[in-house]
Amino acid sequence: MRRTLFASIATLVAIGGAHRVDAQQAAPALSPAARDSVAQTLDSARATSAGRSLPAIDRFTWGDLTIPAGTTVDGPVAAAHGNVHVRGLVTGDVYTVGGDIVVHGGGEVTGSALALQGKVVIDGGRVGGEMKAATPVGGAKADTPALTGSAAVRHSLTITAGWFVVVLLVGLGVIVFSGAQLESVVQALENRFTTALFVGFAAQVGAAPLLALLCVGLALTVVGILLIPFAIVAYILGVAGVVTLGGLAAASVAGHAVVREGPNVRARAVRSLMAGTVLLVLPWLASALLVNSPWGLMLARLVAIAVTWVAASAGLGAALMARGGVRRVHVAVGSAEVAPAGWQTPTPIGGIVAARRPSATPSSPTGTPR
């Protein structure tokens, strides 16, 4: 009888004790990359006041974690890259990295609830301590899959189309408000392409030394020292404007090869810009379509970078030769001498051609011609 009583009591104690579980028992092991990511996030969070009480990396489990209703868990309870659903009682704190803390009806957390890269949701439960949700500076979200297949192609095509639209909008604005300046650069590039290309290369090499020389010159005076920041900003804006103007001129010159002449000058400029931009974007379009082929992507991008760089360099040189479009570059054209007509004779004054006066026809005394 006593043995039966003791056995019953032991069974009840075991059943009652089963309601207090350790939340870390069945924790799957973290992969090395995920563990490093969580460790970096925790180190960044511990530098703030909200993350000083974070437990060690070994206390975290991987994936979702549920505290069943009617159970009691001793904290801290911590999960990485998963949500913590509290339906029972947690005597302590609850932490998540890359997940949410959800306290359902009947659930209770006696301590604090801190969600890094997530949020704390009270769904009928209660949290006795503080509730905080934070994203630590420098905390990286791991296991973000890289785009592959059609998704990667769509992403690359979207970026290429976005740049195409931006270039067109900027070009249309330049044609509308600075069409004469753009036309001057286009003429300089068409007439002296090789010279413009070498001038563009030289400008790229000398851009940084010229800025340094400008800053040194301003630093010689007190007033100049105060003007150095403004001079740097003005220099950068000026370079950006000249490069933009030259790039648009290069696109227009490329478009002239496929656009016919027309009576409307502005309409032809728009068509040339659009056609040239399409030609310059074609290598980038090819690289976007070959994003899933490593070797194809590398070759396509090399071609795209080379074409874009040569066009931008030549356009930059033409813009500098035309002084930003405010001066037209004149090209000497040989002229052939025209032989004077038989009825023309040079006069003694400056060699100006004059017509020979017709001679009078002799007449007879009676007034009739001989």
Explain this structure.
This protein has 370 residues and is α/β, with parallel strands linked by helices. The chain folds into two domains: 117 residues, no CATH class; 172 residues, no CATH class. 51% of the residues lie in helices and 14% in strands. The chain has a five-stranded parallel sheet, with no helix packed on it. Helix 3 packs antiparallel against helix 6, helix 4 runs antiparallel to helix 5 and helix 6 packs antiparallel against helix 7. The protein is elongated, with a radius of gyration of 40 Å. It starts with a helix and ends in a 15-residue tail after the last strand. About 9% of the residues have low confidence.
List keywords for this structure.
single chain; 370 residues; alpha/beta; 2 domains; five-stranded parallel β-sheet
Which helices and strands occur, and which strands form pairs?
Elements: H1 2-17, E1 20-21, H2 32-46, E2 60-62, E3 65-67, E4 72-74, E5 77-80, E6 84-86, E7 89-91, E8 94-97, E9 101-104, E10 108-109, E11 113-116, E12 120-123, E13 126-127, E14 131-134, H3 149-191, H4 193-218, H5 222-256, H6 265-289, H7 294-321, E15 344-346, E16 353-355
Parallel strand pairs: 1-4, 2-5, 3-6, 4-7, 5-8, 6-9, 7-10, 8-11, 9-12, 10-13, 11-14
Antiparallel strand pairs: 15-16
Distance between the termini: 175 Å
Based on CA inertia axes, which overall geometry fits?
A: elongated
The level of helicity is 40-55%
Instruction: Provide the β-strand percentage band.
Output: 5-15%
Question: What is the number of E strands?
Answer: 16
The order of strands across the largest sheet is 1-4-7-10-13
Task: Summarize the main sheet.
Answer: 5 strands, parallel
Number of domains: 2
